[in-house]
């Protein structure tokens, strides 16, 4: 049915508030359902400030805003408002909706919320003012008496409709638990997962502080650069983002220790190779793996090997080991050296080829200095050429 001549059709705008901690597939499903079933023209995501309003918040407001921006970048009818995030205080919904009413005076406004919040809705701050500013679209909740909830809020003056969808089975708390254990959770879209891994979100902050305490400021900056690069490469090549982030964070954990301390770690870890024990440059990786297991509770053998062999390589390297090896050699803060940009470009296509190119460049340099080349690295070169036809 077309509009009549001269008829003004107002835009229907949904404001979707919440913690979005982190934003996940369930949130996107709700927004898309609101567009279609709620006949909305656009949805504006409104993450709350760093307050306990929605339970304990684990990611800072600016991080949650950024994740939402990444997730909605390709959806023209979605946008993100930092109104509440930038306020730095709890913002009553009535205050936020008054802002949107001023911004969009001709729009029909709808606030999207879960049915579990309907019972207390009439007692929200400035509820009557809120009800005059917008209607509400509610998400069903399993086990809730929807008719009772609807009658209660309508008697209080709210215009309420329900979105025809089942309650999403995605849980932010379960995603948080997986991330805290350095596991890649389900239902977390790639852009948000990569941002979380690269920024080290949803982990015990004390762990990162302990790593920082082991290093010089320059070394810690390098470590964060390797994490950024490692996560990018892991995403590019379909590897675990969280394992890459963990291995990168700890890869140089022993680098700044005195050589004697490295040797003690090596002894505790059963490392007896005299070649490794002869140089801190070769030993800091294996010693770091021992440290990661002893002091940081890392038990994943792939992560430990990625830490141990991030400078030398080894035959039969796993994709994760190659990822951290290349990330260490190409992180954004690396001082330029011959072949760096070529290795970076190659790493986007093939991790084995990038590792091989890096080792060959290192071999050329070492031999030009009339120094012996690491036997383990030589074996890695032979293995890469044979295994990947390089």
Explain this structure:
This protein has 390 residues and is α/β, with parallel strands linked by helices. The chain folds into two domains: 12-173, Rossmann fold (3-Layer(aba) Sandwich), CATH 3.40.50.620; 204-388, Hypothetical protein af1432. The chain contains 19 helices and six strands. It has helices at 25-36, 61-72, 83-87, 93-103, 127-133, 146-155, 172-180, 190-199, 205-213, 217-236, 241-250, 259-268, 274-277, 280-296, 301-308, 319-330, 340-349, 351-368, 375-388, and strands spanning 12-18, 42-47, 78-80, 108-114, 135-139, 160-162. It has a six-stranded parallel β-sheet, with helices on both faces. The protein starts with 11 loop residues before the first strand and ends with a helix.
Please outline the helices and strands.
Elements: E1 12-18, H1 25-36, E2 42-47, H2 61-72, E3 78-80, H3 83-87, H4 93-103, E4 108-114, H5 127-133, E5 135-139, H6 146-155, E6 160-162, H7 172-180, H8 190-199, H9 205-213, H10 217-236, H11 241-250, H12 259-268, H13 274-277, H14 280-296, H15 301-308, H16 319-330, H17 340-349, H18 351-368, H19 375-388
Parallel strand pairs: 1-2, 1-4, 2-3, 4-5, 5-6
